[in-house]
Amino acid sequence: MRTRLLALAVLLLLAGCSSGGTRDDGRITLRFQSLAWQEESVEANQRLVKEWNASQPDVRVEYVQGSWDSVHDQLLTAFEGGEAPDIIHDASDDLADFAYGGYLADLSGLLPARLKADIPQRSWETTTFGDGVYGVPFLQEPRVLIANATWLRKSGVRIPTPGKPWSWAEFRRITERLSGPGKYGVAWPLKEPVSATLNLSLSAGGQLFHRGPDGKVTVRFQAGDQVVPRTVHDQANTDRSASPTTLGSGGSDTLPGFFAGRYAMVPLGFSYRQQIVQQAPKGFDWQVLPAPAGAGGLTQGVSPQTLSIAEDCPHKKEAAEFLDFFLRPPNMVRLALGDWMLPTGTEALKDPALHRTKDGWATGTALAGHLSPAPAQSVRGYPEWKDKVATPALQEYYSGAIGIAELRRRLEEDGNLVLARYQR
User: Fold this and answer.
1) For residues 239 and 378, what is the distance between their CA atoms, to the nearest angstrom?
2) Which residues pair with 129 in a beta bridge?
3) pLDDT, tens only, 153-185
4) Is the dihedral of CA 356, 370, 227, 94 positive or negative?
5) What is the sign of the dihedral through the CA atoms of 307, 308, 309 and 312?
6) Which residue, 90, 263, 245, 56, is CA-closest to 180?
7) How far apart are CA 31 and CA 45, in angstroms?
């Protein structure tokens, strides 16, 4: 309780102890909580807010700096306290409970036709719950392989392209070929293993979550769902082609070893390229490769970054007008470049700046059409299932502590008990 009260107090201070409202001079003030954190991204967000304020004297947007750390709990505290920001930056896989809980406004009748048409339906599916749309998906990133180009070139292995990617079996063989004493073909940073595993499993035909005619979701860990976990497990425990020490690491933690020549490749989100550009030693030659493909081709799940409007916002129309401005194609390009990610908008994706070969932009953009809603996108109770069941089970399996049969039992039996509480 003390922690929740402290979180609420912090949000109240950030918010100026008020939700968006109208000042004595008649000017509307909307609070926009942004989760941008990289310097270029923060600058892009703040500049767009300033440009809006300069052109809209009657509707002022107040920029509030938020954090991705524990954002779900922070927002829940704010919603329950009636002090949520008017405009909310989040990720689509965090929206389901807020949408079903009545905390977010249905944007169906608020958004302009231009914005609706510009973003593909597959992206809108990530923010659609029931009959409503509760967020605008605007930035997304595929998972890619960041490779030591010199190492791969000297090894003579076939270099994959979006047109001819590696299969998962070929990927395993190549990482074994690239390994040697003190060196590994791949370093999997799986401190948070669930999202990476589920999203990449779509490429192998995995689905995991199955919705029945009654609308209820159950977990079934079938053959397609097992391809990616088995690959990682066998690389780390059988082939010794994956570093066992990085399985509990975050993506940034693997970069020093990557630069030092201990790992040939690291599977990372597309935005990690910014850190690589900033941190790589002079002369270090790296390249972006597509993730392996399977029965589902290059398909992989994504949970786009989103912008939502709080249900309690007293000026939803004005907030939607800000979203329309903020996400115009040129502005979406600026946001994508600032975050080193891909825009969801079809017009923004055409921008030449996103098709450069430099820093792997062209490879990432070529994958945009293969991105689908993450498997857990609309599953109520997913945060609890992820934290209490899937994360510890996958961590133990990847470390070799349990086998595939026990992993399946825990994901299905234990996992379905958790999900059942949210579907009564």
Assistant:
1) 36
2) 132
3) 999 999 999 999 999 999 999 999 999 999 999
4) positive
5) negative
6) 263
7) 13
In Å, how far are 174, 177, 398, 416 from 170, measured between CA atoms?
A: 6, 10, 20, 34
Which region, left, alpha or beta, applies to residue 360 given φ > 0 means left and ψ of -120 to 50 means alpha?
left
Contacts for 93 with CB less than 8 Å, ≥ 6 apart? 126, 195, 303, 374, 376, 377, 382
Distance CA 58, CA 87 (A): 17
Task: List, in order, residues 6 or more apart from 175 with CB less than 8 Å away.
Answer: 184, 185, 186, 235, 239, 241, 242, 264, 265
CA distance 51 to 391: 42
> Helix or strand or coil: residue 227?
helix
For the record, the structure tokens of 302 come out as: 């994504």
Residue matched to tokens 């690589």:
276
β-pairing verdict for 143-148 and 263-269: antiparallel
- Distance in angstroms (rounded) separating the CA atoms of residues 6 and 3: 5
Q: For residue 410, give the nearest of 253, 229, 244 by alpha carbon.
A: 229
* Adjacency order of strands within the sheet including 143-148: 184-186, 263-269, 143-148, 286-290
**Whole-angstrom Cα distance, residue 53 to residue 373?**
34
Per-residue pLDDT tens over the stretch 16-44: 434 456 554 678 999 999 999 888 999 99
Region 307-316 average pLDDT:
97
The SS3 assignment for 308 reads: strand
DSSP state of 407: H
